[in-house]
């Protein structure tokens, strides 16, 4: 049986046309990213069978829709759906909300245990609470657990953090991190937040005006200079690394990756632990001579791959450190003075690194 998500949809409305085709892994979190009006929610509704678009939808080898006439109604598609609003039943406790979907699945077909979902989302202290007494983040955690307890083949999440304040977002993101480690099912996660994508997604589909601009691993797409993600003020690269050592005297952790090592502030962590870091283009400067006597701890040997001029007086430079892509935002004057161009070897000075997970 083939694994993964295959989606191809065409839909025309009076003021909007959707024409998309993409594939995503059969496990982990795939982000659907784009500005408002890009078609993200419409794609989710097509996958759920809530929109009758032309095309194909296949999830881990099971056909939900095809061009030969197969079209499973929504209630026959084994999926969970988490909306922007948690939509918990107000007359039921958190426990009652979770049990509502769980009890409707025959015991032999349950692939996610009640206690497991409660533990993954940190809901044990909230089980006897009423929805009206919960914070926004707590309600969304309960909504995600309720969707999971229907034992779906696919979980759809439509901007689940929209409307939450920053503290609530910070509260719920670690739980979403845990889900992609614990769950053996795909999650399609709609958002227009690059922060959320950087933190939790492994795969990414970029949409604009009802079309797919790019699809692939998130680290690859975020550094592609032909996509809009790399031209934003918060443009950045995602680096997969492992904990190599800890300097407890100065509160630093050394993270090793294919292009060298990065030092980041942090508490003691287990050596060998995989982590993800985010390096913002605005925090990377370039020099042709290895710097000495500098306060910047992270200096990497890099090779320039691409240079684009997307803003007046500025250049966006894509470099690689041991094959790992990074972005640097520099002035056009610095580019000319240093003779920065494809193939040039230089050094990247990284002023800040964000440890994500």
Explain briefly what this protein structure is.
The protein is an alpha+beta fold and 357 residues long.
How far do the termini sit from each other?
Answer: 33 Å
- Unreliable sequence segments: none
In DSSP terms (H or I, runs of 4 or more residues), the helix count works out at 8
CATH class category label of the largest domain: Alpha Beta
Main β-sheet, in a few words?
Answer: 6 strands, mixed
The secondary-structure class comes to alpha+beta
The chain-level mean pLDDT equals 92
Total number of distinct structural domains: 2
Radius of gyration: 22 Å
Listing every helix as H and every strand as E from the N terminus to the C terminus, the arrangement reads EEEHEEEHHHEHEHEEHEEEEEEEEHEE
The shape, in one word, is globular
What percent strand? 35-45%
Write the CATH architecture name of the largest domain: 3-Layer(aba) Sandwich
In CATH, the homologous superfamily of the largest domain goes by the name P-loop containing nucleotide triphosphate hydrolases
Stated plainly, the CATH topology of the largest domain is called Rossmann fold
- Total strands: the figure is 20
Helix fraction by DSSP (H/I, runs of at least 4): 10-25%
Order the strands across the largest sheet as they lie in space: 6-7-8-3-9-10
